[in-house]
Amino acid sequence: MNMTKKAMLAVSSLFAAFISACAPQTNTPKSVTELDAWLSKEVQSAQFPGFAVAITLDNKLVFSKGYGVLNKESKLPVTADSPFIIASVSKLVTGVTIMKAVEAGKLDLDADINSYLPFEIKNPRVAGKITLRHLATHTSGLVDNKKILEASYGTGDSPIKLGDFLKSYFTTTGSRFDATLNFATSKPGEKFIYSNIAIGLAAYILEVQTGMDFAAYSEQNVLAPLGMKNSHWFLRDFSSLEQIAFPYDSDYPTLTHYGYPTYPDGQLRSSVNDMAKFLIMLMNDGMYANKQLLEVKTVRSMLKPQFSDATPDNLQGIFVAFKSGLLGHAGGDPGAACYLYWNPKTKFGAVIMANTAVSDQNNKNFVQILKMLLREPSTEALFR
C-alpha cells in the first residue's frame, strides 16, 4: 500500500488560506448550544465521516464533543475520547518527550548528533555540524525523500525498526541512501525545510541515549503522567481497533489502518480530550492538574522563536510552529487531518480532528471551522 506525505501539504495550504481569510464571520453562534449546532451542520455539509473538537480556555477544558461516526460500516459514534490519527501534531508530543530527556541530562540540543549515534550521518552536499536543535526546527539539511517515505507506509504497524530505517536512509551503504534526494544543499541552521525524517531521527537519538524504546519512553514520561489513556503510538497498544477512527481518503480507496517506520513524526493516535490535556500543559508553562510535567524554562524555550531574521508569519520554535499569533501544529496524512493551536495572549485554544484528509470538496468547511474556533473573538467570548 503506497502513500505519500502530500496530505501535509494540503493541510499547510488550508491553514494558509485560513490565516489570509480571517475576517470576522457573519451569523456567529450566540451560545455554546448554537456553536454545537453550527459545528454539527458544518460536519454534515462537508460529509466528514467523523470529527471531534475540544476547546480550552485559561488552562481548563471548556468544550469537547464528537460528531459523525468512527467507521461507516460499524457506525459507532465519535466521542471526545475517540482516538484519531493526529499526523504531524504528533511532533509536539515527540518534542515534549525529547525535552524531558534534555531535562534529565540525557540529551543536549546543541551537541553534534554524531556524538550520540551508532552510525555516522554526513551531508554529502555541504559540510556542517548537525544538532538536535536543527532537527527540532527543520533546519538540519536532512530532507524527506518522498518516494522512500511513500513506500514505507503499510498495513498495520510497520515491522521495520526506526533505527534500521534511518541507518538505511542516511548511511552511504544503506539501501535507501540517496546523496541528492535525502539531503539539501543548505548548511545546518541556514534554511527552513520541513522534514519528517529529521523528527524521526531526533526520536531515535533519544532511544540510543536512554536505552529505551521511544514509544515506551514517551508513554512513561508524557502520556501516562498527563492521563492520556486513549493515546498510543502503535495500533497493537489499543484494546480494540473498532474504537479508533478509521481513515477515509478518496485518493486511497483501499485505505486501512496503517503505520510507518518513522512513527514519531506523525503516527500517534489520540483523542481531543487527551490532546486538550497536552494543550493545557503547554499553555500553562508545563503544568497540568497541579503537576509540573516540564520545567517552566523548558516550555518557554520551546515557544521562543529560533530565527532572528524570520517574519511574523514564518516563525519556528523548538518543535512548535507559529502562525500569525497562534502557537501549535497542523497535521495531515492519508485519511486524517488534525489541528492544535492556541493564542498565548488569551490562553484560548482548540484541538480539531477528522478521519478524512483535506480535499477540494471539504476545504471550505475546514477553513470555516478553523476560523470560527481560532479566529472569531465571539467564540472565545462564549466561554468567558
Topology (elements, then pairings):
Layout: H1 6-20, H2 32-46, E1 50-57, E2 60-68, E3 84-85, H3 90-103, H4 132-136, H5 146-152, E4 154-155, H6 162-170, H7 196-210, H8 214-223, E5 258-259, E6 269-270, H9 272-283, E7 287-288, E8 291-292, H10 296-302, E9 321-323, E10 326-333, E11 336-343, E12 348-354, H11 363-374, H12 377-382
Antiparallel strand pairs: 1-2, 1-12, 3-6, 4-5, 7-8, 9-10, 10-11, 11-12
Helix pairs in contact: 1-11, 2-11, 3-7, 3-8
What descriptive keywords fit this protein?
6-stranded antiparallel sheet, 33% helix, Beta-lactamase, single chain, globular, two-stranded antiparallel sheet, 384 residues, alpha+beta
CATH class: Alpha Beta
Number of DSSP strand runs? 12
Widest β-sheet, arrangement of strands: 2-1-12-11-10-9
CATH architecture: 3-Layer(aba) Sandwich
CATH evolutionary superfamily: DD-peptidase/beta-lactamase superfamily
Identify the overall geometry. globular
Helix fraction by DSSP (H/I, runs of at least 4): 25-40%
Order of helices and strands: HHEEEHHHEHHHEEHEEHEEEEHH
The profile of the biggest β sheet is: 6 strands, antiparallel
CATH topology: Beta-lactamase
- Round the Cα radius of gyration to an integer and report it: 20 Å
Number of domains: 1
Question: What is the arithmetic mean of pLDDT?
Answer: 92
Task: Tally the helices.
Answer: 12
Portion in beta strands: 5-15%
Uncertain spans, ≥5 residues at pLDDT below 50? none
What structural class results from the helix and strand content? Answer: alpha+beta
Q: Give the CA-CA distance, first to last residue.
A: 47 Å
